[in-house]
Amino acid sequence: MRPKLIDKTPAELRVEPNWPATAAARAAFSWAEEAKGLSGLPGGGLNLAYEAVDRHAAGPLREHCALRLLFRDGCRREVSYGELARQTSRFANVLGGLGVPPGARLFVLCNRGLELYLGVLGGLKAGCVVSPLFSAFGPEPLQTRLRLGEGSVLLTSESLYRRKVAPIRDQLPLLKHVLLFDDNGGTVQIAATHDLRQLMDRAADDFTVAPTSADSPSLLHFTSGTTGTPKGALHVHGAALTHLVTGKYALDLHPDDVFWCTADPGWVTGTSYGILAPLLLGVTSVVDCADFDAVRWYGILRSEKVSVWYTAPTAIRLLMKAGDELARAHKYPDLRFVASVGEPLNPEAVWWGQEERYRRCFAGDWYLSGDLARRDADGYYWFVGRSDDVIKSAGHLIGPFEVESALLEHPAVAEAAVIGKPDEILGETVKAFVSLKGDFTASAELHDGLLAHARRRLGAAVAPKELEILDSLPRTRSGKLMRRLLKARELGLPEGDTSTLENP
């Protein structure tokens, strides 16, 4: 059964959207006009961290809450823009005291918490190229990224260092400085490392931001590496404008919003929209330092009065799997906008050493992301899938999300993922994998009913020919369903790096 449609008119919205309602106003959009929303460095140039923190700290937002940290034990801490400016300046001074030059590669291996923000923003202030890492990575994927990215500085916790970095430290000859902090606020005494808190206590609050320009490198992100060697994507400080504009229009962030992005900071979404975009717009961000828990998440939406929530489709499905009763236990009157990110989009990037592939990814000045979409009769764009995920069967181009969406309409299905299997006659056939909601049990009858449901919804040419019911589907901790891993297992191919998986 299809879910009910929710229709909204502009008059019913509590807050007028930032994106203009009229075609004439939309046609007048100008990047040059939007760029006036950035200040630029006092001496000329552009720096992401200055735009995200320091310019607000020097104005009326100085005492406004930038970060609302929610700890695992139920405690909380609010950090103003003024305090964030002071703390990030201290971190930048720590780097300067160690002799770290602008352009050095700083890797940040942190769970969600204040240290993550100090590392990313303080590193950007110092002119470093900052690379946030997924904290669930094991030693091997960490070693690969630190080596490919020529990391010379690493910020991480003592526990993560002991478990994941110490075993590979001798394989990283370029890694000169390791800054450690204790998760419980204690001192750190490990050979060949620095105690971050001791250095921060001695550092000054004032720092002159490095004279970066719009074209200066700022962030280094890596692809997941599930199908081969991770590829580095180098961003520049000029991306501040894109983060500002997309936060303003795509996420519709307003000055009084309380924003919560659940994406892991080790991936591009978690950095671009979990850290930078809300700070660029001067709003308050909720930072949950714990892992996914349905009861906790519903509680955060209610108690923190979240107004804009940016999460992953998988997280939403997990909440659905927890049942309607839990969702209805609270009211969410402040929540006005929910946005989701599905398959992570490839960012504007340079692939090192792959010149031909790099050139194929551009059409003039436009970057071709490899994402496919369709436009409906109302002018809305619907994400179909990645070009390399589209299934070609008997002359039909089948988007996996189309099939998955149809399966998710069945009341028994909590999650669905679709792959293409080689077929001598058809080219490829569609196979679906599903997990069930808690009050349903796998059976032959349900299996056949799901296939019949898909045929009714999609037609025989597009519907899955095979279906398998699993206890859960493989996904990363950031919520990405790993269709490629399902395909590798189905076809007996190498699985590649699985350290990012939440449930391997």
Automatic annotation (TrEMBL):
Residues 402-480 form the AMP-binding enzyme C-terminal domain. It comes from the Bacteria. Keywords: Acetylation, ATP-binding, Ligase, Nucleotide-binding. Residues 75-351 form the AMP-dependent synthetase/ligase domain. GO terms for molecular function: acetate-CoA ligase activity; ATP binding. Its EC number is 6.2.1.1. GO terms for cellular component: cytosol. Pfam families: AMP-binding (PF00501), AMP-binding_C (PF13193). One of its GO terms (biological process) is acetyl-CoA biosynthetic process. PANTHER family: ACETYL-COENZYME A SYNTHETASE (PTHR24095), ACETYL-COENZYME A SYNTHETASE 1 (PTHR24095:SF14). This is acetate--CoA ligase.
